[in-house]
Amino acid sequence: MNNLPVVRSPWRLVILALGFTFLYAPMLMLVIYSFNSSKLVTVWAGWSTRWYGVLFNDDTMIRAVTLSLTLAAATATMAVILGTLAAVVVVRFGKFRGANGFAFMLTAPLVMPDVITGLSLLLLFVALGHAIGWPAERGMFTIWLAHVTFCTAYVAVVVNSRLRELDKSLEEAAMDLGATPVKVFFIITLPMIAPAIISGWLLAFTLSLDDLVIASFVAGPGSTTLPMLVFSSVRLGVNPEINALATIILGMVGLIGLIAWWLMARAEKQRLRDRQRAARG
Length: 281
What we know:
Blueprint: H1 12-33, H2 50-56, H3 59-92, H4 99-111, H5 114-132, H6 140-165, H7 168-176, H8 181-192, H9 194-210, H10 213-218, H11 226-235, H12 240-280
Helix pairs in contact: 1-12, 2-12, 3-6, 3-9, 4-6, 6-9, 7-8, 9-12
C-alpha cells in the first residue's frame, strides 16, 4: 500500500481560532472589565480592584454565594450516591420486572423542561405541606431536594456509560475467589468507575450552582441563591460587582477542573500500567 500524504486544510487553524474566540472571548472581556474602576460597565476608566473590595463587603452577596456553594456541594454528593446506585442497578442487575420503566423514569429529568420540573415540585411541596405538614416552609431544604431530583439523572448517565465499558471478568473472578458482591463493588468496581463518579460530581455541582428556574419555584424567603440574586440585579442594570464575582467563580471552576483532570489522567495512567504488568505477568 502506498503511504499517501495527509492533506490538511489551511483553514483548520482559522476555524479553530474562531471557535475558541467565540467561546472564550466573552469570558475574557468579563475578567478584564472586573478590574474597571468605572461604575458604568461599558465605560473603561482604568485598572482598579475596587469592585473586589465592594464584593467582599456585600453581606447579601456573600450570603447568596455561601448558600449556593453549600447547596451545590450537598446536591452533588447526594446525586453521586443515588446516581451511582441507580446505574449499578440498571447495568449489573440485568432485566427485572419494571426495568424499562425504572430506566425511563431515571432519565426523564434530562429531557423535562425546567419550568415543568419546578412547577411540579412546587405543587408537590405545597400539597405535602397541607397534607402532612412537611415541609413546613420552602427554603434551602426544598431547593436541595429539587436539585437532587434532576442532578441524579445526569450522574446516573455518566456512571452508566462507564459501567458498561468495564470488563465484568474481574468482578466475576473476585466472586469466584470468595469475595462478596458488596466487597467486590467497593474494592474492584468503585475504583474503576472513580473517574466517572468525579465527573458526575463536578457536573452535578455545576448544574446546581447554575440553576435559576427550578430554584425560583421552590425557594422561600431568606433562601436566595446566587443565580437568583444576580438575575434580579441584572434586571436593574449590570453591576460591576457581578463581574468581580463571576471572575472569582471562573477562576475557582477552572482550578477545580484542572485538578480533577490531572487526578483522572493520573488514575487512568496507573490503571493502564497495572493492566500491562498483569498482561506481562
